[in-house]
């Protein structure tokens, strides 16, 4: 519409110039006076000048308009009135475009100020830097949590805390770890993310103070551990004390002195039974202490590339040998060519423990079944072990990974907690879900 008007006005001017030139030529040949041709010539030149001025003025307006974008200056406005009530549609369009971009610029600035305000007030520390190490963003929380001033380059952290800098360099994209800066002594959860923006590579590192949460979890873990230790030790020590008291009473007379006469056979049998019971309790307590020692000294995994299909076959063979009297159907869905980096002996220990627990939970059931499958993702492999047993009660489910916690009459209760440690040593995890339809353990490596 705007350029149609411009074209029409230029066309009208060209037509008028043509008519004036034709009239000038006609008057030159058809009239005897020179004033008419000269007048028409002057008029033609004037019309050419006005056409040039109009086109040049439009060009200058366009040039100024586009320069406004280069300078990010959207405050300029154009006079839209031409004659009376008529409007210059090109300048109207210019003003509309400038108003739109001005509104967009204000909105963008408001959003920037809002994000800046949020960034400075959040408790999570953020540092974003480019591939060359130049820091684009470092909020107040990051400086406070790390105990350092505002930095220009990320490698300047080495001057303040070399160990922290080394830990950040070893941090992989998407990985999360806990660090304790020497400058602040806080326990920080640190995660890293890489992204690309406008052909620039960026690294974003976040820091969150989890000191209070960790202390609460540590305290809770200690309370649970002490509760289990107290329960186990009391269960062993109380009968020992009772039995030794009984033996002492058998061997003493009414005055509290050792009997001088030979003890009756019945008393000797009671003493023998008491000593056997004391020995059994002592062995149980010794086994508990040994289990505690094993738990506090977790093995270090020897990582190697393992064929998951072959490993599973070998592990199931070991399980069938150890549980020869148990009849459980085991289904497996694993590709033959799948490889995983892990310690096959330790992972076999974890899997056999899960299979034994499932088999014991389904004891006496009709058609007990265990399904083993694999789910692959971009950065991890998940081994899934599911059974169709009665499930784990909700009030017990959250305790299953607590060291020495067990609902069995036999066992030391470190199987699942040790499995948790082994998975953590692989930089993985073990989780459990349970319902009346069965229990599912997920091993993530």
Automatic annotation (TrEMBL):
Residues 228-445 form the Histidine kinase domain. It holds the Pfam family HATPase_c. GO terms for molecular function: ATP binding; protein histidine kinase activity. The keyword Nucleus does not apply. Coiled coil: none annotated. The keyword Transcription does not apply. It catalyses: ATP + protein L-histidine = ADP + protein N-phospho-L-histidine. GO terms for biological process: phosphorelay signal transduction system. Keywords: ATP-binding, Kinase, Membrane, Nucleotide-binding, Transferase, Transmembrane, Transmembrane helix, Two-component regulatory system. InterPro entries: HATPase_C_sf (IPR036890), HATPase_dom (IPR003594), His_kinase_dom (IPR005467), Sig_transdc_His_kin-like_C (IPR004358). Gene3D superfamilies: Histidine kinase-like ATPase, C-terminal domain. This is histidine kinase. It comes from Roseivirga misakiensis. The lineage of its organism: Bacteria, Pseudomonadati, Bacteroidota, Cytophagia, Cytophagales.
């Amino acid at each position: 519409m705007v350029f149609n008007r411009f074209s029409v006005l230029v066309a009208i001017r060209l037509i008028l110039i043509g008519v004036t030139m034709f009239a000038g030529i006609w008057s030159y040949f058809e009239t005897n006076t020179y004033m008419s041709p000269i007048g028409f010539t002057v008029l033609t030149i004037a019309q050419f000048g006005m056409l040039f001025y109009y086109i040049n003025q439009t060009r200058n307006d366009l040039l100024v308009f586009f320069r406004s974008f280069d300078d990010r200056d959207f405050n300029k406005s154009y006079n839209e009135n031409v004659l009376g009530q008529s409007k210059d549609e090109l300048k109207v369009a210019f003003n509309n475009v400038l108003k739109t971009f001005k509104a967009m610029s204000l909105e963008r600035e408001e959003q920037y100020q809002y994000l800046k305000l949020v960034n400075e007030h959040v408790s999570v520390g953020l540092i974003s830097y480019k591939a060359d190490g130049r820091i684009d963003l470092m909020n107040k929380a990051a400086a406070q949590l790390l105990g350092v001033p505002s930095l220009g380059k990320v490698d300047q952290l080495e001057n303040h805390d070399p160990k922290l800098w080394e830990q950040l360099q070893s941090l992989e994209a998407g990985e999360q770890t806990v660090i304790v800066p020497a400058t602040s002594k806080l326990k920080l959860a640190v995660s890293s993310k890489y992204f690309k923006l406008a052909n620039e590579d960026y690294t974003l590192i976040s820091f969150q103070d989890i000191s209070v949460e960790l202390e609460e979890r540590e305290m809770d873990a200690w309370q649970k551990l002490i509760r289990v230790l107290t329960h186990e030790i009391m269960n062993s020590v109380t009968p020992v004390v009772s039995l030794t008291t009984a033996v002492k009473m058998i061997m003493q007379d009414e005055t509290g002195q050792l009997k001088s006469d030979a003890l009756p056979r019945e008393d000797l049998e009671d003493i023998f039974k008491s000593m056997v019971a004391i020995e059994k309790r002592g062995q149980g307590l010794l086994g508990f202490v040994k289990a505690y020692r094993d738990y506090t000294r977790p093995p270090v995994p020897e990582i190697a590339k393992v064929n998951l299909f072959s490993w599973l076959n070998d592990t199931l063979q070991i399980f069938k040998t150890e549980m020869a009297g148990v009849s459980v159907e085991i289904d497996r869905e694993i590709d033959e060519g799948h490889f995983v980096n892990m310690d096959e002996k330790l992972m076999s220990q974890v899997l056999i423990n899960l299979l034994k627990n499932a088999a014991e939970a389904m004891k006496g059931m009709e058609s007990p079944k265990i399904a083993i499958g694999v789910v692959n993702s971009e950065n991890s492999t998940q081994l899934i072990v599911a059974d169709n047993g009665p499930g784990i009660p909700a009030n017990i489910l959250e305790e299953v990974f607590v060291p020495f916690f067990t609902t069995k009459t036999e066992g030391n209760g470190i199987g699942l907690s040790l499995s948790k440690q082994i998975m953590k040593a692989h930089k993985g995890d073990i989780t459990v879900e349970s319902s009346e339809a069965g229990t599912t353990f997920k091993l993530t490596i």
